[in-house]
Amino acid sequence: MKRIMIVDDSPMIHKLLKKEIEKLGHEVCYCATNGQEAVEKYFELKPDLIFMDVTMPVLEGDAAYNKICEKDKSCKVVFLTAIGDKELLNLNDTSNVVTIIKKPFKGEDIQNAINMAFGGH
Predict the structure, then answer these.
(1) 61 phi and psi, to 5 degrees?
(2) Which end is more exposed in the chain, N or C (fewer Cβ atoms within 10 Å of the end residue's Cβ)?
């Protein structure tokens, strides 16, 4: 079982993602509503994977990713976006990006992303 953090400003996305993640046998260790909260909680909770929205208040997803990866080179992030364009992300380094999922997503998108992050385990 992997510990997964959800970062999105939509409570509905939290609910949908949590349901899919738990259905796959993993634990949602925290649901953050903005990038700043995600950065703070990441270092406290050390999740195995983050599902992170790109567009959020306070601190955007790409900026939060950059802050986390700056200090933890082993972090793994799946970006969620309604935009779907990798070029629109302002990332310092993409080596920790597992994949980008376009909203609206399906349950199989979540399962595939988790499999990609952990080599199918």
Answers:
(1) -60, -40
(2) C
Residues 68 and 38 sit within 8 Å (Cβ to Cβ): yes
In this prediction the pTM is 0.93
**Tokens read off for 28:** 């949602």
User: What digits encode the pLDDT tens for the residues 56-108?
Assistant: 999 999 999 999 999 999 999 999 998 755 556 788 888 899 999 999 999 99
